[in-house]
Amino acid sequence: AVSKIDITYHHLLLNNIFTIRIWYLQRDTLDAFLDLITRLAAVADQYLRECLQMLVNNFTPPLVQRNELPRWAVSRKKDIFFHLCESLKTISDTVPLAPRILRDIIDRSMPKLFDNKAKMVSFVECMLGLDTDRMGDLIGATLLAKVVDLLTELDVNITWEDIIQGEHNKGIFEMELEDLNEDEDGLGQAGTKVLFGGNACAEKLDSLMVVVCEHLKSCAERGYLDKEFDILKAIFRASVLRVHRSKFCQFIMFYACSLDPKICGLEFAFFLTEIFLNKEEDPISRMSAVSYVGSYLSRARFISADTVLAILKKIVDWCDEYCVLQNRGTTANPNHQIFYGACQAVMYVLCFRLRSIMDYPNLKAQLFQLSFGFILNHRLEPLKVCLPSIVNEFLRQAKDAGLFAASMYSAAEDAIESDLSRAFGGINRLDTFFPFDPYLLKESDRIYPSKFRVLVHGQDDIQQ
């Protein structure tokens, strides 16, 4: 009977098959149809690409309204995604060429910046469902890289002016200090914690961050987090580290680390530190890495005080060596900006972690052996270049702890006092980039509170 079908009708029939929206099919019909698709895909040199494209097209359900899924689609979404992923895995097991073609199809089908939120979320949610077992080994790195690229593109299209209106000339740290001055009981986070909404890119990013974090949590529960983290770390190194002042996408690393603090959490901290210490790395990567590690150690509640001190020692020792080489005039390629960035990172960390380090006598003894006085009083004058808000808070806490000789504080305070009269504070004021500043997206904000540290005067606290 099939041989009797006219060639034109045959092509029309195939076209109808490859454009079907499986979301409208009843369960029995759906099973039979997907079985047909997996069989067609296995026909040699015929319909593999068309079958894969049809399945990928169904990553997004019919959008009845502009930015929302119909209720019936929401109720079927999990089941549909499961069947799509199972069909793609079956085809990949049957046809060795399928994963390579699927990577290309997903690449071409990825949501674009101005696509609506519902389409983006559905596509990414279904796509990440493929990142399991053997399928994940074949295309997992590509899938995650595409997702991170999308997160980054959305992120860079959000400005701080959109987020904190009227406060965009200040850093989050400065606003935290203002909150503390206004509310000394340590609960005054309302001024800083103005959650961000109303911007289309931010709302899309917010929802996607939930999807990605839920995927990472699922990986941890299934014992796959170590593999996923290795892939994420490489993607972060290639695609996120050097992005100028990204605001939110880097928090997927923070969340992944929080799921396994003893392995992923430590690995990320030392990974960033090694990038900073590596003289073969470019200056931008080194500056960004030291900003990241400073912010990470400050904010990650799951990183222990002894780990914080171990990394601080590496950074302080590097600063000490840099000062010595400057005194000798033997620095081959001096880069003071990296030095200033390292000093600022050290002071920033101690603003958050000094008290917790001081709670342990052995760590306190090690801390007091570090050469803070030599570095901060060096002729390069880091106290004049680093952000005054950080320097002042650091000096206040250091003075209370007796970290330096008394004579140093008056000299340091004189230096800061003179620079505070400048319009922007400091000589060649350093960038106010602290990658893990408080998280300001509404929906995904619920993921981070128990893992995140904020600045308080008195006892250590977590984000409320």
Automatic annotation (TrEMBL):
Gene Ontology biological process terms in this record: transcription initiation at RNA polymerase I promoter
GO molecular function list: RNA polymerase I core binding; RNA polymerase I general transcription initiation factor activity
Pfam families in the record: RRN3 (PF05327)
Gene Ontology CC annotation, any one: nucleus
Family, per entry: Belongs to the RRN3 family.
Protein name: Uncharacterized protein
Organism annotation: Aegilops tauschii subsp. strangulata
Lineage: Eukaryota, Viridiplantae, Streptophyta, Embryophyta, Tracheophyta
